[in-house]
Amino acid sequence: MNRSTLLFSLALFCCHVTTAFGRVAAGLGRLEEETGWLERERARGKPGPSGEDVFLLQDSMLVAHTDAGSMRIVRSAQGRIIKKPLHVGFITMEPHSLFIPQYTDSSLILFIRRGEACVGAIHENELVERQLKCGDVYRIPAGSAFYLLNAETEEKLHVVCSIDTSESFELTSFQSFFIGGGSNPMSVLAGFDTKTLAAAFNVTTEELEDVLWRAKDGPIVRIRDSEHPTVWTKFAKLKKHVRLNHLERMVAGTNELTEQDDDSDVKRMTWSWRKLLRRIFPLENESRRSFDGRMSVRAEADTFNLFQKGPDFKNDYGWSVAVDESEFKPLERSGIGIYLVNLSAGSMMAPHVNPTATEYGIVLQGSGTIQIGYPNGSAAMNADVKEGDVFWIPRYFPFCQISSLSGRLEFFGFTTSSRRNRPQFLVGKSSVLQTLRGPELAASFGMSDEKMEKFLDAQREAVILPSPYAQKHQREADHEDRHEHDPVVEGERESKDVGRGWMLDVDKNDFE
User: Fold this and answer.
1) Are residues 73 and 163 in contact, defined by beta-carbon separation less than 8 angstroms?
2) C-alpha to C-alpha distance for 280 and 235, rounded to whole angstroms
3) Of the candidates 141, 147, 123, the residue with the CA atom closest to the CA atom of residue 295
4) How many helices (H) and strands (E) does the chain have?
5) C-alpha to C-alpha distance for 362 and 359, rounded to whole angstroms
6) Could you say which residues of the chain have pLDDT below 70?
7) How far is CA 211 from CA 118, 158, 161, 177, 187, in A?
8) What are phi and psi of 445, to 5 degrees?
9) Cis before residue 185, ω within 30 degrees of 0?
10) Which one of 173, 244, 345, 479 has the largest count of C-beta atoms within 10 Å of its C-beta?
11) How far is CA 265 from CA 56, 248, 512, in A?
């Protein structure tokens, strides 16, 4: 190797080293910057019952409201630490109501909290309609036209949904584009010049205005009005297969109506929907039909029921369910996971960290406390939560949820990864401390091996732990057992009062 080649190689090596150090420094700078941002946000946050509540989302906005229902959005916190901000939507619909056809600039994952719903959506160039019951999860991609109907029950419909704004034109916003509509809400078609639009539809301006300006009841409308039925009322009252056939004919371009559908309003609706859908959502293969002439529905399951899945973890203190893309394929396209946790009174989800995702949680029932720690070991939040509250946990931040003594705490949520999350528990029988136990771990805490072993063996439960009161009572019971000389009847279970709740004392002899 000659001298010039050697010098060039040395210079190249120095350049790589400098770049590497620069990246490390930049990474440390970003971490410092993000921690600083969180500290500043915490300082600005409104004081909660137990300190600042930066990680409670309180920026709520009412985006739709009529006497038939409403939609409220809780917007995600903003900051560079959030790689994929998710908003959380709450939809409430009265019995016999319709959220009129629309598409959005954000993908939605619907979770039916209470009631039943009928969702009609264009999915992979097919029109499908799904009956959703309590516990069902359903995904609507950004840009896909859909409607939401509560017509089959006298019960109110409550829906919680994630709103992924990564595809929207503004990450902080959520926008609906109403296909149907009139003066309230405005249809997306109303933004065109009247003459241009009339020419595009090949109709007169009078016919066009009769379609575009009729609706004025808002985005959520009632569909039971015998005195003054609207076109949406007529549409919703059609039988399911007739309603689907209507939409199929609209997209396919045929304008045939059955005798029972022969109504001027329905004809007008068919005319407008057919031409609109063909222009905005053209079918790649319009001839694809099932043997009976109706649109085929793909075999892959596009709904998932959280309540019907067995718990991933369960003990005497609660249970948890998590669903990823391996179990529900539509989650893969959203890159979002879902979970549901139910803690009994006074129980806690052991302190843990999510290594792969940011977590958004919604309290569905009960009350409790959320505790979060900063990377430097200081407390980030210790706030009380109740039904309807929304919280978020940044990736890597340690946290735990604790149920109040007055009743169970149930919360549902989304994670920003559709892959298996695999949370790392910091406390409990299955914690990382148990895996790391040894002289190195003891030395890091400045303790002897024997003392560390005793410390780690004190907790016999994993993942979901009993309350401090339950643990105290258990320790007292263990102490009594050690000093009790009378034989214990095999298989006997002793019920013990614990605060306002109760628990069963079960040992390993109760199981084979």
Assistant:
1) yes
2) 21
3) 123
4) 11, 30
5) 10
6) 1-52, 78-83, 123-125, 152-153, 169-172, 224-301, 467-512
7) 25, 31, 31, 17, 10
8) -95, 0
9) yes
10) 345
11) 47, 18, 69
**What are the residue ranges of helices labelled H in 224-297?**
231-237, 240-252, 264-280
pLDDT of residue 74: 94
**Nearest one of 363, 357, 349 to 320, comparing CA atoms:** 349
CA distance 145 to 127: 9
List the domain range (segments joined by +) for residue 344: 306-425
Count up the domains in the chain and report the number. Answer: 3
Q: Are residues 265 and 353 in the same domain?
A: no
214 plus 237 within the same structural domain: yes
Give, for 424, the enclosing helix (H) or strand (E). strand 424-425
Residue 290 lies in a domain: no
Q: What is the pLDDT of residue 294?
A: 36
pLDDT at site 233: 61
The pLDDT score that the predictor gives to residue 223 is: 83
**Cross-strand bridge partners of residue 319:** 314, 342
Tokens of 308: 């019907």
Task: Look at residue 12 in the predicted model and tell me its pLDDT.
Answer: 53
Domain match, 336 and 237 both: no
CATH number at residue 315: 2.60.120.10
pLDDT at res. 183: 72
Consecutive H or E run containing 379: strand 379-386
Query: Are residue 177 and residue 230 in the same domain, yes or no?
Result: yes
Count CA within 13 A, CB hemisphere, residue 378: 8
pLDDT of 217: 82
Q: Which residues contact 328 (CB under 8 A, 6 or more apart)?
A: 137, 301, 304, 338
Q: Report which secondary-structure segment, H or E, holds 62.
A: strand 60-66
Tokens 């993908």 map to which residue? 107
| pLDDT score for 485 | 47
Kindly state whether residue 361 falls inside one of the protein's structural domains: yes
Question: 131 lies in a domain?
Answer: yes
Q: 474 in helix, strand or coil? A: helix
Spacing of C-alpha 13 from chain mean position: 48
| Per-residue pLDDT, 23 | 41
Rounded to the nearest 10°, the torsion over CA 190, 194, 198, 199 is -120
Position 376 in a domain: yes
Query: What separation in angstroms does the CA of 411 have from each of 231, 374, 414?
Result: 39, 23, 11
Neighbours of 482 (CB within 10 A): 7
| Sign of the alpha-carbon dihedral angle for 427, 432, 438, 439 | negative
Residue type, 185: P
E strand or H helix at 137, and its extent? Answer: strand 136-140
Same domain, 150 and 248: yes
pTM of the model: 0.73
Locate all alpha helices (DSSP H) within 335-395, ordered by sequence.
Answer: none
State how far the alpha carbon of 175 is from the alpha carbons of 101, 119, 167, 188, 233, in Å.
14, 19, 11, 12, 25
